[in-house]
Amino acid sequence: MKNKQLKVVSLFSGCGGLDLGLEQAGMDVVWANDVDHTAVETYRFNMKNSTVIEGDIKKIDVDEIPDCDVLAAGFPCQPFSSAGSRKGVTDERGTLFEEAIRVIEAKKPLVVIFENVRGILSTKNLDGSLLLDSIVKTLDDIEPGYVVNYKLIRSSDYGVPQQRYRVIFVGIRKDLEFEYEFPLPTNSQEDLELTVGAAIKDVENLPNQNDVWEFSPQSKKLIPFINEGGSWKDIPYDKLPPRLKKIRDNMKKYRAPNFYRRFSRNEINGTITAAATPENCGIIHPTENRRYSVREIARIQSFPDHFVFVGNSLASKYKVIGNAVPPKLGQVIGHSIIEQLSTIDVAKLNNALNKHMQLELFDH
Fold first, then answer.
1. Which of 53, 57, 61, 230 is the most exposed place for a label (fewest CB within 10 A)?
2. Among all residues, which ones are annotated catalytic?
3. Overall number of domains in the chain
4. Tens digit of each residue's pLDDT (9 = 90 or more) over 182-226
């Protein structure tokens, strides 16, 4: 395709990780929305060619949202996370999926991209059915209908220096008469460029490198005992707080948790979370007794060095990065969609566009 950029509308956009990746792939994000102030500030600072609206999507009329070829939505993942309450669709945030459907029904994009945590694969509705089956059926049923494929993806398989698992859904409008196929992995788990050492090298004097959130007094006492590549199991028993002593006394009961993980320079980092707590997230620098800096976790999430995180709160910067889709993963998915759409007969594409909205037409 030439003379045609796929226009993207993005919901629950966060600071723009997925959107940046889609733009790097060659798409054009024309409109985005999120309710988090720091995320929107960061998005607006970096994604200057996109319109981003701060506010509750439930209060935005679909007429205020432009037409699009692609609808991307990382609807809030907390209700479906195995690390959270697993309230699923009983949680108010679970209903935000319905807001994405409302926009899809109005705009009828060619492609729908959803992103969520791996916990969504096992989350059940109140009647015992699987939530992901409901998502697929909903997209199948709404006019004009979408053929949906989903996959649990390990980000490090696609060049992200992080063992981050996410579920990606890609729906293709039925009148295009083809089914999306996920790209094959591009990287080996032995790829040295994916290691912590490679990810955080040469960060001096970069934006946000001096943004380092201090540990709590308790963590400051414990972390010096942890070796590079180690965890809380390196900490002498008599130095542990009472709660951790209780767990250490009965590891089988507590399923041998791996608290305070400090990844070594020759390992691939684990998932960076929004909370950025050292107890439950591998966020301890391999050789220094501190958290990774904001720039270092941005590197681990595959954000480019020119992408600056703004805002007055350090904790909120860690939060928006931890909540983001790695841009490199977004780029791989976006590029695969563009490539696969380019194999469709141009007359079929134009007919599909004319059928539902008046957008720019495709030209080979």
1. 61
2. 77
3. 2
4. 999 999 999 999 999 999 999 999 999 999 999 999 999 999 999
